[in-house]
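Quick note —
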Amino acid sequence: MAFSNENNWLVLSTGNKSEISVGYCTLYGDMVGGFSPIKDVYKTMVYSVSRFINKKYGGLIPENILTKAPSAELKPGQKDQDKLPPYDMLDQILKAYIEDGRGYKAIVEMGFDPEVVKDVLNMVDNSEYKRRQGSPGIKITARIFGKDRRYPITNRFKLK
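Predicted structure written out below.
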């Protein structure tokens, strides 16, 4: 932020929709920024776009970034899958809940483990307060947080 102020730069926030959805981000940490270019792009799509860029432009993104297990790197050996389902599963659940407006029962009927679905939906609902403080970004999907999907953060509100 100091460099941004000094040089009239715009700080970009790095969180993707998968991480922001479940609160796998840190307020005043990786959420800091004036603009969030991938806030409405699921993690699996980030990887797809990255591979497309590499194919088209000759490997601009180091391959080890695309093959290394995702990690917040807050402690040695940590992986996102220690706390989250694999992103290919997580993103399907998130899309069903956020984009398609499906509830718990309908998502379980898609073939997902009931406990995993319950945990993911709780993470999404409990992380609204973080998303309210995040920077704006480009709308990519059918429903972007903040504009198309807002969830109350007071009075212990819960969807049924």
